[in-house]
Amino acid sequence: MPRSNRPRRPTGHGARKGAGNKWTRAAEPDADLDRTRFGLAERQSAPDGEWNIRRISPSRAAKDYTCPGCSLVIKPGMEHLVAWREDSLFGAEAALSERRHWHQHCWNTRNYRYRA
User: Global pTM?
Assistant: First the structure.
């Protein structure tokens, strides 16, 4: 009888129903889609400087935040964005610690005037 090149299926107490190997096991499609749509920060130029913008998916929004544009609360589960300065005077770490959560509309319509 010819030999088969197919791997043997696990038997006994080591076998788990529905567990595939790393090639046949499907990744979570929602996690990959969220990572693609929301994971990377983009850079934006504006009259008030260079900004890094990262979109936050509804599944990753876990806390209440106050939007600096409208002073309303961004509730958990609401899609929004996080913005921090790229060209901070005190360096990248200080800019990252001063990041703010914005509604998408508030960010797009923000006022560029400097507050004194």
Answer: 0.61
What local confidence, expressed as pLDDT, does residue 39 receive?
64
Strands 49-56 and 65-66: unpaired
Whole-number Å distance between alpha carbons of 68 and 64: 13
DSSP β-bridge partners for residue 56: 80
| CB of 44 closer than 8 Å to CB of 104 | no
**DSSP 3-state assignment of 73?**
strand
Regions of the chain short of the pLDDT cut 50: 22-23, 25, 27, 114-116
The domain of 78 spans 26-108
Q: Let me know if residue 55 belongs to a domain.
A: yes
Q: Does 60 reside within a domain?
A: yes
Is 91 part of a structural domain of the chain?
yes
